[in-house]
């Protein structure tokens, strides 16, 4: 909770005064695919990321009329050290290859793909997008 949810709250508190003064801002939070459907062995993690989604949507409603958009990127199965540790430890109910085989894009995502989604949501091009959870997950359905 401290890292995934409270840190987001405190970061928003730190940047919000400048955004309010400017009448413009982009807040992009990171949630998680598991927060939208649950995940075995990850109840606390997914609960904290579910809080990120709820806070994102509430802040978007509160801040949209002040020129500030608030969105969340929800990564799916991304090739990170944390994912590799879970794969190596066999923490999934079935082999991870079987999970990926069900995805329309059957591979692990790349960290750079998450960064690209965040960059878009932080751009001028995303000015009419707010309160959204953008799934970057190879097409896995929620």
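^ Assign residues to that structure.
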């Amino acid at each position: 909770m401290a890292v995934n949810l409270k840190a987001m709250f405190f970061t928003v508190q730190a940047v919000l005064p400048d955004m309010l003064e400017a009448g413009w801002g982009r807040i992009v939070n990171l949630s998680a695919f598991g927060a939208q459907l649950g995940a075995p062995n990850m109840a606390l993690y997914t609960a904290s990321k579910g809080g990120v989604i709820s806070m994102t949507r509430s802040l978007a409603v509160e801040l949209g009329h002040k020129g500030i958009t608030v969105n969340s990127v929800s990564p799916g199965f991304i090739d990170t050290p944390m994912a590799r540790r879970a794969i190596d430890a066999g923490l999934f109910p079935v082999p991870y290859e079987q999970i990926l085989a069900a995805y329309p894009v059957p591979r692990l995502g790349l960290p750079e793909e998450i960064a690209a989604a965040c960059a878009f949501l932080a751009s001028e091009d995303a000015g009419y997008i707010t309160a959204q959870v953008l799934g970057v997950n190879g097409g896995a359905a929620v």
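The mean pLDDT is 94.
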